[in-house]
Design the sequence.
């Protein structure tokens, strides 16, 4: 009991560290989330066109001009042909339309009169041409019905006002879970920082030779004391994991985390927190000062976060860096998060790559624990 | 009085170097035993072997009649140790530290609280109980170190040089505290290389050198081993070689030296030596300012036995 009490008193003395890295998670995790959100509404681009109308504003010509005014930026600034050529060259104007005389009459007679058009290079010009073509095709179709000018214009306008709802059909809602992936990827840094710093500082205090000697001559069994310290370290790591998950519910939303996807993120993070605990135990065998703890924490937490894609998405990292990252558990933790995001169904085949990543992190944890045990025994022999 | 500690033929080597060499000792209940010796004489190694902090090559160690071993937790419960180095948690307050180390022995909360208060009072840290170790001076830190070692009211206490680098006020406080612990019934092993402390505190003294006991006994018994009775120092401004050689003719004089205005005369035996010497000074009209007379110290005993000073 007295060991646990001292453990938590020392942990509380360093609560500033936990608050700092929790704030960083909330701040930078949220920042990432916003910058990565996708737009759900699109607005049609309006190309700039210049119209020289030599016809009367009647029949199809009238409707066409009205349609252009709605769907394009109709400019009247270019009376001079040289200036117009420059504007086309610099893509300030994308399409110049010449409507010949008696165009609406010819159109009404079904003669398929031609519009003279000059366009700039590039995508906007094509868009402008599509707008023109779209109107004229619709108008031509309705012209066969024997409608008067107003009826024709109205029918064409109604027909073209119809919008098609385009729905992107993929089973994986990557937009929804990309937020969670980014949050848990950044948690790689915060978990490592919180767990390594606090556990190392506590273990350093208990492992100081003088204190250790005093513990050894006391009537408490040293193996019992070690078990108590180990138990409390695990409880602490669980606490950090639980804190980040609870914050995750607030930041990401209940619907995201209270789902199979969410539970997979939570399980993945739990395994990683366990691995971080073993890393902290291993590091605590070597550090003897607060400065060394801080240095080691930065090397491990920052280093692995940069190399494994916690801060920058893995797809932006060079292949050599990602290849090197394979030797770190953080890589498999972050990769599992990405795979959870892309998960389309919950079949065993789909879950297998994620489970393999989790298992690899577990293997890392066991490896670190074995090395720690070896180093600890070696140090005891030397002492 | 029964023996609290019995050590027989203890030997501990570090490679070729014998740190403790066939050492046997016994500590009686209620006494303060001083382990005196220069640095590297084997005091701390002996203590660590007795406490099972070190494995030893040969020998038997019994504490309270039971074989001492790393897992002798019942025996350990009756022992308190104050190490030479300050062994406390920087993150815990003075009270928190004493409470932690006391808690390793005493589970009952109320008893422990009382014991912690008693320890604070014993070392005079009541007013500092909410401070952290880094806020304490070196002397106060040493007092905290002692409080952490003795708070659980052990029957046997090991004190390993507890007054190293301590200011005089704290030293007096510590020594008074140790006397009180003895008065309360504790048996104490006091390790030091400060002979003055041993002379003030210890009922019995063991002098160690190169891992061996070279002398053992009470203060008076040990001083009797010295072949000198008295050392007299006289401050004399000038002294001719003839006058100096004249001192050697005084009765019972063993040796005479004169250096930087200080005349040192050592008497091997006899009484009223000082009076005879003053008479000689007057008779020879030697001007002097002050005279000091000293009885032999444990340092003299050590010098006599080993040919070197305790602090060498």
Sequence:
């Amino acid at each position: 009991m007295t060991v646990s009490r001292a453990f938590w008193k020392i942990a509380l003395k360093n609560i500033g560290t936990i608050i700092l890295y929790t704030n960083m998670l909330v701040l930078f995790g949220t920042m990432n989330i916003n910058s990565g959100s996708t737009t759900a509404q699109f607005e049609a681009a309006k190309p700039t066109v210049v119209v020289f109308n030599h016809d009367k504003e009647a029949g199809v010509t009238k409707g066409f001009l009205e349609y252009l005014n709605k769907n394009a930026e109709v400019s009247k600034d270019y009376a001079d042909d040289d200036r117009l050529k420059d504007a086309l060259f610099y893509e300030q104007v994308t399409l110049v339309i010449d409507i010949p005389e008696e165009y609406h009459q010819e159109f009404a007679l079904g003669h398929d009169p031609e519009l003279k058009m000059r366009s700039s290079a590039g995508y906007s010009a094509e868009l402008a041409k599509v707008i023109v073509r779209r109107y004229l095709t619709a108008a031509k179709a309705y012209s066969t019905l024997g409608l008067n000018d107003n009826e024709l214009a109205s029918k064409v306008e109604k027909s073209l006002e119809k919008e098609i709802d385009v729905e992107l059909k993929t089973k994986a809602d990557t937009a929804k879970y990309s937020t969670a992936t980014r949050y848990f990827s950044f948690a790689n840094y915060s978990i490592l920082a919180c767990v390594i710093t606090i556990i190392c500082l506590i273990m350093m205090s208990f492992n100081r030779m003088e204190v250790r000697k005093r513990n050894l001559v006391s009537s408490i069994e040293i193996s019992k004391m070690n078990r108590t310290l180990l138990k409390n370290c695990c409880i602490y790591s669980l606490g950090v994991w639980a804190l980040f998950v609870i914050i995750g519910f607030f930041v990401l939303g209940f619907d995201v985390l209270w789902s199979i996807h969410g539970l997979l993120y939570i399980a993945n993070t739990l395994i990683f927190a366990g691995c971080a605990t073993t890393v902290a135990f291993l590091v605590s065998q070597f550090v003897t000062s607060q400065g060394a703890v801080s240095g080691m924490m930065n090397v491990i937490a920052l280093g692995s976060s940069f190399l494994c894609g916690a801060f920058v998405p893995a797809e932006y990292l060079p292949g050599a860096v990602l290849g090197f990252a394979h030797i770190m558990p953080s890589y498999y933790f972050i990769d599992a998060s990405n795979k959870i995001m892309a998960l389309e169904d919950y079949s065993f085949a789909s879950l297998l790559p994620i489970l393999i990543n989790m298992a690899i992190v577990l293997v890392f944890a066991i490896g670190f624990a074995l090395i720690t045990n070896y180093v600890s025994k070696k140090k005891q022999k030397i002492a | 009085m029964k023996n609290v500690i019995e050590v027989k033929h203890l030997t501990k080597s570090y490679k070729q170097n014998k740190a403790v060499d066939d050492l046997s000792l016994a500590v009686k209940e209620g006494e303060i035993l001083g382990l005196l010796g220069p640095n590297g004489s084997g005091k701390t190694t002996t203590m660590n072997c007795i406490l099972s902090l070190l494995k030893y090559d040969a020998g038997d160690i019994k504490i309270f009649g039971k074989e001492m071993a790393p897992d002798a937790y019942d025996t350990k419960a009756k022992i308190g140790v104050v190490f030479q180095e300050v062994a406390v948690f920087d993150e815990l307050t003075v009270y928190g530290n004493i409470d932690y180390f006391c808690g390793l022995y005493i589970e009952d909360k109320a008893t422990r609280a009382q014991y912690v208060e008693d320890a604070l009072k014993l070392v005079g840290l009541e007013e500092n109980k909410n401070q952290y170790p880094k806020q304490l001076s070196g002397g106060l830190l040493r007092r905290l170190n002692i409080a952490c070692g003795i708070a659980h009211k052990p029957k046997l206490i090991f004190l390993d040089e507890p007054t190293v680098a301590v200011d005089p006020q704290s030293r007096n406080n510590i020594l008074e505290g140790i006397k009180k612990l003895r008065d309360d019934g504790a048996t104490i092993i006091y390790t030091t290389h400060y002979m003055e402390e041993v002379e003030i505190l210890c009922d019995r003294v063991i002098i160690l050198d190169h891992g061996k006991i070279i002398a053992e006994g009470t203060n008076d018994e040990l001083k009797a081993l010295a072949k000198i009775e008295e050392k007299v120092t006289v401050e004399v401004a000038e002294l001719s070689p003839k006058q100096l050689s004249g001192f050697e003719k005084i009765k019972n004089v063993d040796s005479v030296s004169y250096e930087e205005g200080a005349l040192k005369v050592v008497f091997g035996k006899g009484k009223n030596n000082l009076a005879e010497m003053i008479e000689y000074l007057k008779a020879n009209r030697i001007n002097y300012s002050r005279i000091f007379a000293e009885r032999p110290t444990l340092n003299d005993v050590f010098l006599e036995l080993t040919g070197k000073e305790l602090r060498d």
